[in-house]
Amino acid sequence: MLNFDPTTTVQSSLHPDIQYTVRVLNSVERAKRDAKILPIRARIGELLRLVESLATGQFDESKESYHDYVKRQPAEWLAADAELTGINEKDLIPNEIMAGFVSASGFTIGGQPVTRENILSAPTPVLAELYVACNDAAGLDKAMLKNLPSSSTSVVVEDGQIGTTTAPIANATSSTSDATAGKLTVA
Fold first, then answer.
1. Measuring CA to CA, which residue among 98, 137, 96 is closest to residue 118?
2. What's phi and psi for 106, nearest 5 deg?
3. Tens of pLDDT along the chain (187 residues)?
4. CB 157 within 8 A of CB 119
């Protein structure tokens, strides 16, 4: 008999005692998750087109830091980029986490066990790692991510912080140095 386990357990890189259980989403569940935020995704598309049209030159990491690239952009670009970041932090990332999160072990939030009700109160490094785990379990493998258009919203997790980029999702990275900062209490 074939058995499909709709969850997977992910070992944290933040601390050896931390594990997340996340849902493995099939294409129907991904579509349901995405349908909840369809107007938000439409706004993201508008903002990405605006950011691309307003950008002063292309970003080339071999020639300048991203910080320097941002500094030379016009005010309208900065406003659109800030709105993209806000949408990601307020709407997109929480939606992705709540669609995939089942449980966590090895830490508490404010002295309380981790639940679906309080997981979004976890420190940013935990949310960043959990976001990556939920996306990885959503059924989009590296080849699928690579084939997405380069104008996709990409969430970048760097040094335990969540940010955005208009680079292809395939270039998004994940690292979690200084990972135990914040309200994380290891059980």
1. 98
2. 95, 0
3. 877 778 889 999 999 999 999 998 888 888 888 888 889 889 989 999 998 888 888 888 888 888 888 888 999 989 998 999 888 888 888 998 998 999 999 999 999 999 999 999 999 899 999 999 998 887 655 555 455 443 333 444 444 444 544 333 333 333 333 333 334 444 4
4. no
Phi-psi region of 139 (alpha: psi -120 to 50; beta: other; left: phi over 0): left
For residues 42-75, one letter each, b for 16 or more C-beta atoms within 10 angstroms of the residue's C-beta and e for the rest, the string is eebeebbebbeebbeeebeeeeeeeeebeeebee
- For residue 57, give the 3-state DSSP assignment: coil
Contact between 88 and 154 (Cβ < 8 Å): no
Taken in order 59, 156, 136, 24, the sign of the CA dihedral is: negative
20 forms beta bridges with: 10, 104
